[in-house]
Specification:
The complex is a heterotetramer, with two copies of chain A (about 300 residues) and two copies of chain B (about 250 residues). Chain A has helices at about 80-90, 105-115, 135-140, 145-155, 170-180, 220-230, 245-255, 265-270, 275-285, and strands spanning about 5-10, 10-15, 15-20, 40-45, 60-65, 65-70, 95-100, 120-125, 160-165, 185-190, 195, 200, 205, 210-215, 240, 260-265. With about 300 residues, chain A is of the alpha/beta class. In chain A, strands 3-4-7-8-9-10-15-16 form an eight-stranded parallel β-barrel, surrounded by seven helices. Chain B folds into two domains: about 1-90, Beta Barrel (Elongation Factor Tu (Ef-tu), domain 3), CATH 2.40.30.10; about 105-250, Rossmann fold, CATH 3.40.50.80. Helices cover about 15% and strands about 35% of the residues of chain B. A seven-stranded antiparallel beta sheet of chain B has the order 4-3-7-1-2-6-5. The chains are: A alpha/beta (about 300), B alpha/beta (about 250). Bound molecules: flavin-adenine dinucleotide (2 copies), flavin mononucleotide (2 copies) and FE2/S2 (inorganic) cluster (FES) (2 copies). The site of one flavin-adenine dinucleotide has 21 residues of chain B, from strand 4, strand 6 and helix 1. The site of one FE2/S2 (inorganic) cluster has 13 residues of chain B, from loops.
């Protein structure tokens, strides 16, 4: 499957299919379905400095062709991750992308510092999670703040730095450029879109947190647009995310300019989705006589 | 746990929006209390699978007892035998097979009766008889009565309106029957209010109790963290993975 | 149905159900299905100073639980509207909301000036259409620009001025406040979300224009969130829009803070949708023992 | 034009992904070339209805001939008789019933044959015989042949691979049959390339031609402006309202 390998700057992936953060646990949960090392990489659940219990229930609700979640970044914390979760992933020799999240710039830096001495080849900087009160979102919504945190993490982590962008902004290209200039090696987009559903009987939000993040096929057209826009404005590699479930969805993102993609919500519906996509992509390229995936990337024909 | 493209073998209305659906899963067996994530028709943008307790395994066919309540289940009703449906299971942890001294009692509410069909059969094979206390709103919400008796269980019913059995809450019936709490172990499945009452009663009599909780589920496989329940220390556990059956002492019951 | 009447500032509607701009023609097309005067109001197709032919085909594409459109504001122009289309609506005695759109601030003002001497009781200022190259979107994405155009139109049109907001912004409350301060009588939200779908065979966008606007149930959770947010930050009435098809959808918007709602894409699927909703709303209030719709508005219980 | 909650009366595969579906609409009649917006199952987030030509009205039942090509039609295939489906129609303008001197010729490609079944019957009733030129990729893509003959039409076929009838394009067959263009009026339905070729040939022989166009449709009722076609002055017209049948001279054919 050499036609599928990808180089995101200095990060080599055997294929472009990555399990999205928060939708694949720490990589152990789905081992019954397929070998985790068949994926290009695994992005871990968002990791914070201290363990977090996350938000109260209910945390998820289905919406038309999508779902809203406000898990609130429940995670074991960076220390327990490195001690207890990382060894499994290391034993499988799969590329690990540590998705990290801080309440403050200092926390981001601290977590990155903890990761520097480990084997983890890449950090995905989550500056875009809408489900926590402090931090996160504010960084992602402002180019200046986004650049600041990127730069700070850059200075303490010397391997691949991927920055995950928030779609809840007027101009994603602006944030993308700022982050690229601040030293990001790649960009992943999009995170979930802030959304709300209301229980009309109780008049309460369907999610205890009030608002949450919309994911799934419903947001795909928005994500594809954003990837296409960002592709035109930055030079660093893009990882496309948002409602990808099957081959054709992924192809849209590659054509729009993504060099790799992440599978999130689809894994909930089809535990095998990411694995199946690797196989389908390979067959597609073969049958279409395309020598390498990169021939597809960014081939979108914009209207003149 | 695996994902199977099964076929609907039978699909019957049993009144009052309740349905029995048989799916050719080919599964060997399951532990009662375990569940499955079933694909339902996608109308109106339905995306996620739906969790249902497994009620019975007979040969290659797994049965689910469901109530049509929302978009997914109401569309499910329309599917006829022969239609293929994906089903992921058996999932989670069911009731435990630990040794018990004293009567084994099940307390079920509504469609929470489902796991106790297979559970009655499995216990009967081991020479145990399950004593089931079964509460529902009204007579027509009492399901599987013949099946449970055929499976060797002893069933006592209660209805809120008194249309069948004891009039009142099933926990009142339970209290009445075991005033001193001389019970070996309690298994319970039903709405949260029922589980709370059962858990508290068991606690007050020091009866070990296993409660099967019902939470909204995104994945059923432990990766989304959408289905959690809290223990008494405020720590969250996944209903789909560590549960859906928990020891009462593990759960924050108020 | 007096429990349904609504006052948006000085604009009285017999009920809160409005046909959304661009999804109901000029009000004549669906007369076979129900009397147009059974609706609270009709928002016309976006009107420009000169007639516009709109964008080349294809102009629409279905996406999961939604659709993207880039009609490009094909319309007869303000003059022909007043001469040829308005008389029909006047004869039906339905409240007309003229949705207007300009390439420049001067054009907006000019169109509003044309409407001032007519019977049209309300203008809906479309500062949020993503489907034209100049104008539109830029105004909607910047609080300062949005306020400028609102103020300018305000000064030449002395009846109800509704401003329709673009969802493609980082902070809708900011734009909402600016527009309210500039003299808007009410706000309608949301317009479509900029989106793209790609034909993976031809590698061209599915829509000739490249990008278009996403509408339908897919965007409802985003629209509900935005209405709830804006409701907390402005005092003027809000008209909720986005993926409303049936009773429960509309209730979500009322609870979030909308005093009226608009039905767009749903009319494509069910020509009768808006009319049916009026009936269903009335029955709902009656059966729930709610004396008047306004008792519902803004009753959302935010988590503490 | 009305929206009807109809029922599937019959639903038959006729090979090669083609299906005939009969819906109890209760419509009195329609003008061939008119179409309907049919609800299809909502799986995968399918939202909009799908446009299909009306092929036949027999008593209360309207027939549609369709090819399963995408998400909507492929799911439609699974529905069985008895299932209720909403259908909005008859919509748009069909072929005109104007007086004609000289042979009436239909040129159809693929499932574009659909309107010509009813059209043959209606013309036959008025004492006219429709001469149909029918092109398809291969033999199994030729549909309704018996029905058309029973309806009194004269049918000449062509296939691209020569597996039935003339080998080549149906427009070549047409040119061969009418070298001098002595035709009264042409009605055509099929892919855009076919309509263009037919329109241009008719124009070169000054034959009045009516072309039924196929465009993506959002509403079918004229409100979305998603389905437009351009005339020679660059002005847009709605296929669902002013069309789908247009005079060739009204359309920009290149
Ligand atoms: C472990 C477990 C076992 C269950 N066993 C049974 C059973 O044996 N028989 C039965 O009839 N029902 C059972 N349920 C409840 C069943 O999952 C819901 O009734 C069903 O998901 C409703 O789907 P819907 O599309 O009709 O409703 P909708 O309201 O349209 O569903 C919207 C979303 O909410 C979720 N949801 C809605 N109601 C519930 C609920 N009560 N519990 C969990 N999620 C819900 C759905 O899964 C879906 O994601 C069980 C639930 C769990 C968690
Ligand atoms: C006036 C008219 C008459 C038609 N008559 C027939 C007929 O008699 N028999 C038949 O088999 N087909 C007919 N078609 C084509 C038919 O509408 C499409 O094949 C069908 O919509 C495909 O739906 P899908 O969900 O399977 O495909 P998808 O590709 O999943 O559809 C996605 C979207 O694109 C639209 N779309 C896709 N293909 C077409 C197409 N060829 N034309 C218009 N819209 C399309 C769909 O309506 C839908 O909105 C007709 C189209 C028009 C406009
Ligand atoms: C339940 C859930 C939890 C998530 N948790 C995280 C997280 O911890 N960190 C993060 O960066 N993104 C998180 N995401 C966002 C996803 O990684 C992804 O960006 C988003 O869901 C869009 O992709 P999808 O439509 O394929 O799901 C989460 C998404 C879901 C649905
Ligand atoms: C085909 C189409 C055309 C539209 N044209 C206009 C327009 O001319 N002016 C405008 O303000 N909004 C226009 N809109 C946006 C709608 O009025 C509405 O804001 C949007 O579709 C969201 O609502 P919905 O999800 O109910 O469709 C259009 C929407 C669609 C789908
Ligand atoms: S349902 Fe996803 S973790 Fe339990
Ligand atoms: S399909 Fe909507 S105007 Fe023709």
């Amino acid at each position: 499957m050499s036609r599928l390998n990808v180089k995101l700057g200095d990060l080599s992936l055997k294929n472009p299919v990555i399990a999205a953060s928060g939708t694949f646990g720490y990589g152990e949960e789905l081992e019954n379905f397929f070998p985790v090392e068949s994926l290009g990489a695994v992005a871990t659940k968002g990791l914070s400095l201290k363990p977090r219990e996350g938000n109260p229930m209910p945390r998820i609700v289905e919406t038309p062709s999508g779902m809203i979640n406000a898990i609130g970044l429940q995670n074991v914390g960076i220390e327990a991750f490195i001690e207890k979760k990382l060894p499994y992933l290391e034993s499988k020799q799969v590329v690990v992308i540590a998705n990290i999240f801080g309440n403050t710039l200092e926390e981001y830096v601290e977590i990155a510092r903890c990761l520097q001495p480990t084997s983890v080849p890449a950090i995905e900087l989550n500056i875009s999670c809408p489900n926590v009160k402090a931090g996160g979102m504010e960084f992602g919504n402002d180019p200046v703040q986004a650049a600041r945190v990127t730069e700070a993490v850059r200075s303490v982590f010397n391997r691949h730095l991927m920055v995950k962008l928030s779609p809840n902004v007027t101009s994603l290209p602006k944030v993308a450029c700022a982050v690229a200039d601040a030293g990001a090696d790649s960009l992943s987009l999009i995170n979930t879109i802030t959304a709300m559903a209301i229980n009309t009987k109780t008049r309460k939000p369907m999610i205890a947190n009030g608002v949450g993040g919309l994911s799934g096929p419903a947001i795909r057209p928005i994500a594809v647009r954003m990837v296409a826009e960002v592709y035109r404005s930055v030079k660093i590699p893009i990882v496309g995310i948002g409602g990808i479930g099957e081959l054709n969805d992924a192809l849209e993102f590659f054509i729009a300019g993504a060099q790799a993609i992440q599978i999130g919500t689809a894994t909930f519906v089809e535990p095998n989705a990411a694995h199946q996509l690797v196989k389908d992509l390979d067959s597609y390229l073969k049958e279409s006589g395309i020598n390498h995936l990169k021939e597809l990337v960014g081939t979108l024909k914009w209207p003149s | 746990m695996k994902d199977t493209l099964s076929q609907i073998v039978y699909h019957r209305s049993i009144g009052n929006d309740y349905y029995r659906i048989g799916l050719k899963t080919g599964w060997a067996s399951f532990q009662p209390g375990q569940f499955a994530m079933l694909q339902v028709p996608g109308d109106g943008g339905v995306l996620l699978r739906r969790p249902f307790s497994l009620a019975r395994q007979e040969g290659e066919v797994s049965e689910i007892l469901y109530k049509a309540v929302g978009r997914g289940t109401r569309n499910l009703v329309k599917l006829q035998p022969g239609v293929p449906l994906k089903i992921l299971g058996p999932l989670g942890h069911g009731f435990s097979s630990s040794e018990v001294s004293g009567p084994r009692v099940a307390v079920a509410g509504g469609y929470g009766i489902a796991p106790f069909w297979e559970w009655s059969l499995q216990l009967a094979k081991l020479g145990h008889r399950l004593q089931i206390f079964y509460g529902a709103r009204t007579k027509t919400d009492l399901l599987y009565l013949d099946e449970l008796r055929d499976a060797g269980a002893e069933v006592q019913c209660s209805t809120e309106d008194g249309s069948a059995g004891f009039r009142g809450l099933v926990t009142d019936l339970l209290r009445e029957q075991f005033p001193n709490g001389k019970v070996g172990r309690v298994y319970s499945c039903g709405p949260w209010g029922l589980l709370q009452a059962v858990g508290q009663w068991c606690e007050s009599h020091s009866i070990p109790a296993e409660l099967s909780v019902e939470e909204a589920m995104g994945c059923g496989t432990g990766v989304c963290l959408g289905c959690v329940v809290q223990n008494r220390a405020g720590k969250y556990f996944r209903a789909c993975k560590e549960g859906p059956v928990f020891l009462a002492e593990q759960l924050k019951l108020n």
